[in-house]
Predict the 3D structure of the following.
Amino acid sequence: MKKSVLSAVLAVTFVSFGFSQRLVQISNSGNSGGASMAVLLPSTPINVENIAGSPYIPTNFVPGKVSTMPNQVYMVRYNAVNDEMVIKDNEKALALNKNIPGVFVTVMSSKKRYQTFNIADSKKKTGFFIVESSPNANIKLLNKEYVEFINKQVAANSYQSDRPAKFKRADDTFYLSMEENTAILMPRKKKELIKLFPGKDVAKFIKKERISLKDKQDLIKLVNFLNS
């Protein structure tokens, strides 16, 4: 009995993964026996040999901090093809566990905050988003970054040349988070957006401020209004 109570009470424990740093494991008190989930897991490698471009944002590792280890600085980068936040520890590439809600990575140079959210109406249960507005607000503007992999294209005839395989940066997609840890696609039409917030005069605000639903700064302004 004492063991089960102690397992439920412990929120964070530290375990050694054989690296120089101790990595955090978070206790999942909802599971029987106080089972825990590792914050960092093995990452999925991508073969980039002979492929133009990069699946990573940014291309190279940059300094960043993980919310569960605020006193440590790690080298981080986002794998936008596999939707993984890759963290380097002693030359070992690890991936932040997407199944732990609330854990986030902050890129120190750009101040980007990558956080996992459940994706509504998607086969993917969770994904990494940049939180563009206040992370403490009830309604948040989220930004999903994408990189596409384009296969090698063989020349159709002798007058053309083969096109090598490449990674191509795709357009970002905006989402809203209105419920705890859930992301919904930002409506592309004003009428759809207005229906989401019947208690706010969204139409008047959009017209007055000349809000574009494609512009990030305009959307941040809109979300701030929705939170007011």
